[in-house]
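The instructor's notes for this session suggest beginning with a concrete chain rather than abstract definitions. Hand out the sequence below and ask the class to guess, before any prediction is shown, which regions might be ordered.
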Amino acid sequence: MNTRKTFFTILLAAVAGVNVCAKDIIVKPGAYTIEKALQQAREERRLNHAADVCLRLQAGTYSLNQPIIIRPEDNGTRIVADGKAVISGGVKISGWKKEGKYYVADVPDFNGRPLEFRQMWVNGKKAVRARDVADFDDMYRIKSLDKAKETIYVPAAAVKKIIGARYAEMVLHEMWCVANLRIKDIKVQGDSAAVTFHQPESHVHFMHPWPSPMVTTDGHNSAFYLTNAKELLDTEGEWYLDIKTSKLYYIPRKGEDMGNAEVIVPAVETLLKVEGTPDCPVKDVTFDGVTFSHATWLRPSTSGHAPLQAGMYMTEAYKLRPKMDRPNGDHKLDNQGWVGRPAAAVSLNCAEDVSFTRCTFEHNASTGLDYHLYIKGGSVDRCTFRDMGGTGILAGGFSPEGYEAHLPYDPTDERIICTGLSITNNLITDVTNDDWGCVGIGAGFVKDIKICNNEISEVSYTGISMGWGWNQQVCSMSNNLVKGNLIHHYAKHMYDTAGIYTLGSQPHSFIIENVVRDIYTPSYAHDPNHWFYLYTDEGSSYITVRDNWTPEEKFLKNANGPGNTWENNGPEVADSIKAKAGITHETR
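After discussion, reveal the predicted structure:
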């Protein structure tokens, strides 16, 4: 080996700003090529003592049939895209034939099983799963409900098209969430129809008190739309999958040539898993410039989806009578609930200093990037999140599945808490477009997190949600910073919302120098006035809210605990602060 030549090569590359590795492994698109490259990198460390290994993904699409898994054996690896390298869980659909007003294609099996999906993209644009309304302002509203009989009563005219449909779904607007309920039966009774639903979502949905379908006296009963029935397929850009025959029906948009169109449906739920153990975490792995797309999420098709908040679905929930007394001055609790977590295109557990830079997360069914448990350090910087069914970025736990959601969480093993994560200079737009109750950035039980200089827009609910637990007892959350973010065009579909929202006690935490503006005004919101720019909700304690620019002082402090400080928020904040909010151009 020519040591002198190697030294000068590295030196010149460093001066030129090129990322240099002791060992570059060139990876080209193909089956299992990334997995094989990771194995090769492990062997370079084991046999050749390589200290710095870089996988260079060449431009193209890396189609998966199972997740890529990053393990502790991959510590120190960098995965860098040379050109647009797309890690995809999608399957292309071709062979379209015209049948009447539809184009029809056979859906191939995937991994030996019939392929089912809930999203479809045509030439990179998301198509619409067949539904009864093109404009959500035209949604019907429920008439009443009977929780004991697990029945919702709706106008008969709303369901007349789907009386015989086998797999139709109701998507029901409920205050700050939407529920996906698979329809079991419809019985028309005059000008009304009684609609019942499949289990398990029916039982969970009608047992829990919050959020709830709204029946009011002012005309703001919960709105709903119907989907997933061929009888509803009547508008350009809509599609329907017949899962019995594996035939896909589509009505093209104007100008779409189905003979040449690229049609992609998602097939793999998680594209990338970073999985260590608490005592042997994955360390010092970075992803640079990689695109993650076309991840699926099928739980709503098999079990429905009855969320509690921020996309966390309930597995059990019920009302308490009498209410439960709680310590530390918290008001009485009227319900119990346990939650599960939606799938993510990229998920991390037991990871230390694992980072994503200049990556793109797009065309995914649920969460984009999820830093879950046993997380230490790491960063998400200059990434783009767009066209996502759920939340853009999740961080930290939102109550373990065996832990009641309203309890303060302070585990003996403090390592479990997501600590020291940095989320900066990211563009997050058009996320939450399937599950309207999700958020742009969601942080649960987190510590020392920094959410700074991101731009968040076109979200259905809240821009940034930080904290969990609905109580003011000091627990595992502290030292969190939300600074310099630009949040606009939010609450596209849901209210009881804010640009920035908090829950629970978070000592030494700061929400400062953010800009929140341009809220949507959906006609079907259950309470048209119940929206805010800044919102400290139940138990929020020891948080400083300062120098945040908003067009007016429309804030809510609901059932807060002690120690909060509010200073200089509203339209009078200095222009110099306002101008700095959002992505910093020098680092984008």
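Then share the key points. Residues 245 and 384 are 37 Å apart (CA to CA). The radius of gyration is 25 Å.
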